[in-house]
Specification:
This protein is mainly α. It is built from 8 helices and 2 strands. It binds a DNA duplex through helix 3 and helix 6.
Length: 204
DNA sequence: AAAAAAGTCAACCGCCACGAT
DNA sequence: AATCGTGGCGGTTGACTTTTT
């Protein structure tokens, strides 16, 4: 791995820590305790900011740190705590022994946020489908009872048209499946339900 | 095989709170 | 009361890795 040799604004080293730096920091903390980070950095002979030293200690060097392999129980706890507390990572981490706020935050951003988004999308799709199915049923009812339905099979009464409009707007918000040609066709419920099936397979 | 895209995560930055002076 | 130093936090970056094309 290539080790960065960047410097920050104050001219201190920045970027990934080397094993040698870790060792120096751990030694000086053993002597003086994890406080006064600015002077610790100097005592350790590290050309690092106090903040950088503190972060390295808190997230990687301090004892009893757990890294990786977040269990199902931990994940469940993170999800529930996030629902309760929002992005208050240090509070959440405080309830998970050995875990750091940074790790929880990273785990959330790279795993859980997508998972949650997917779950929400699925719920929304389910809801939408149910609604559309109910409306189709309603239109179907009108279709068979409406004397304005003309001899070509066109569906031209006002209620039916507005219902059809509603269905299109709910079902096809992205204008993805349906297009304006729908208006030139009788409302074909079988045809409509084909799209519902397509929708279902796309989301699995 | 290689280039591009997507994912991961360690570390930085800016901001804020708080205690000391 | 004002200023300064320090610690703590969350958002974000970007180097590196992995997956996809």
């Amino acid at each position: 791995m290539c080790i960065q040799t960047l410097k920050n604004k104050e001219g201190n080293r920045s970027g990934f820590w080397t094993a040698e730096e870790d060792q120096k920091l751990a030694q000086v903390i053993q002597l003086h305790g994890p406080t006064k980070w600015q002077s610790l950095a100097i005592n350790a002979g590290l050309n690092r900011s106090g903040k950088s030293c503190r972060l390295r200690w808190m997230n990687y060097l301090r004892p009893n740190i757990k890294r990786g392999n977040i269990s199902d129980q931990e994940e469940d706890l993170i999800l529930r705590l996030h629902k309760l507390l929002g992005n208050r990572w240090s509070l959440i981490a405080g309830r998970l022994p050995g875990r750091t706020d940074n790790e929880i935050k990273n785990y959330w951003n790279s795993h859980l946020s997508k998972k949650i988004m997917k779950q929400n999308k699925e719920k929304q799709t389910k809801k939408k489908k149910k609604l559309v199915q109910e409306m189709i049923k309603e239109v179907d009812h009108n279709y068979h009872n409406d004397y304005n339905h003309n001899h070509n099979g066109y569906y031209d009464n006002d209620i039916g048209c507005s219902k059809r409009n509603e269905i299109i707007s709910i079902f096809d918000q992205d204008n993805y499946y349906l297009n304006s040609t729908l208006w030139d066709e009788p409302l074909n419920l079988v045809w409509m339900s084909n799209f519902l099936e397509v929708d279902e397979t796309n989301n699995n």
